[in-house]
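Quick entry between incubations.
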Amino acid sequence: MDNVVYQTAPARVVFGPRSTDQVHDEVGRLGRSRVLLITTPAMREAAARVEAQFPPGAIVRFDDAQMHTPVKITEQALVVLNAHDSDVLVAIGGGSAIGLAKALAVRTGLDQVVLPTTYSGSEVTPVLGETADGVKTTRSAPEIRPETVIYDVDLTLSMPVGLTVTSAVNALAHAAEALYSAQANAVTDALAVRAISAIGHALPVVVQDPQNRDARSELLEAAWLAGTCLGTVGMGLHHKLCHVLGGTFDLPHAATHTVVLPHALAYNAPAAPGVMRRIAEALGVPDAPSGLHDLISSLGGPTSLATLGLAEGDLARAAALAAASSYPSPRPVTEKGMRALLTDAWHGRQPGGGRRYPGAELRQLLAEVEGSFGDTAQPRLHALLASLVRHLHGYVAENDLTEAEWMAGIDFLTRTGQMSSAKRQEFILFSDSLGVSSAVDILGNSRNTGTTPSAVLGPFYVEGPPETPQGTDIGAGLDGVPLLTEVRVVSDTGEPLAGAVVDVWQSNKDGFYDVQLPEVEGPVLRARFRTDDDGLLRYWSILPSDYPIPTDGPVGEMLAATNRHAYRAAHVHFLINAVGHQQLITQLFPADTTYLDSDAVFGVKQPLIVEFTNPGGSTPDGREIAGEWRRLDYTFTLARVPAVATTRTSG
Ligand code: BEZ
Ligand code: FE
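Done. Structure below.
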């Protein structure tokens, strides 16, 4: 699991039939007794049930809560609250009553006990939207979030069927967007899947039988779970679109959610195939966006923005507004994409321009391919192949890959293979330039603490370099700044390793290895040494140079197409073998070389960057040098071979 910060809202939830009768106890639990009861006239009956629980004079009712929480109404309610000296707010209703309770809470600091009668989730968020002089402003603060939520299914039995559908899809939207939220985590994932599955199951039952208490209860529980997702993780594209359509074009909240959600899911489907699979499975449909669209239309819910009152001429502005601000979405949001999405939603078309996302077929295909490896005898091979096809299929699905794109990829790989030979390792270069070689190196060689980090071997190593006595100049008189290398090879115990075999190779001052230069009779700037009794090795060469990796093949095309340079930071290669120790393949980089931050093969590691000093004056071995010379000192620490060899298993 990725890094997760999970913070739950401190709200207390009381869920169950007839829980309206517990308002008095819950108010007492908060240490309060003088209630301002906020409702709308439609909730008169429930309000009376609450009033009956309190002694005369302890409760005063304000039942003029209105949509969009007008500040004018909040001020009227404040007068009532002050006159009565209320010390707690109780709200029964949907967005209007809960919005007013939040508006009063943020002004007075009073606690809130809310009894939601829709599935909107407002009761669990710290967000308040208010209107003054026709302008809506939204704010978020911890004290806005109600302290206690009472979910009583009885309060939802009379919800009209139309509102039931749109409100439940509103809840479903919270769960769906939680699944691909940047903050998604194990807790909200589980809540979201359960909420979606409950809505998919219970909503058709309620539409057939609006008084069905079990199904109503299931929907209310789903609203609670989905609301918890809404209150815990950030929402994405769908909520942004609904915000634009509601805020700028005044479309009704829940109905807008209902029309937009299948289209927002279709837009994100290629970038979040796993999430779409979970939604589809939870709803029991083959494909999430079209399955949801079909479910909504079979239940008589709205499927077109035109029927909600949006003018066709406003689509371009809505698309521009939706694309203007940045917010998290699995698939990058473009104005063109929003225009297509909103146009489909306006006409009431099938989501995704009527093109169905073949998620079920893709899943079936992958299952067949994975199954085809079922008889593989070696468990590790089985695991690697199954994982490979999962990632390849995921790559194809996630990017909605076209045949032309796939064939271009195949052509690239084919040419990479055709160019590869014993002398030209274009495939290894491809792996290097994608950072894959370094990833494998990190996994295999960075598990020992306190030892020298490794780095990629590269294509210029030649097996079996000539054994060379210590002190030799392997530069063979080549032009360049003389470099004296003095290194020590020690064990991770700190003990010097005598007789360690150290292969070294490096570029010349122009960045070429001997094997790249037909005119050079090698081996030059490459040798095999042995450490002395103190684990020491001393030899001369010249300063290496940065150099480009070969660009005359497919890898070069890739670098050009992605505007990447081809250079490696200057370095010297070492391959060290010592008895009883793990082989170390590594490189040392002069601290003053360029490209340390952008090495073309991602081979640089901080501990391998070394000052190649400029001591001046005479050399320690008395070699006469007219001009500048440099010195490289380093200690290589090798890991001991573990006493009992361990192998990685597919476990
Ligand atoms: C090298 O350091 O020699 C090298 C490593 C990876 C790719 C190309 C060159
Ligand atoms: Fe190199």
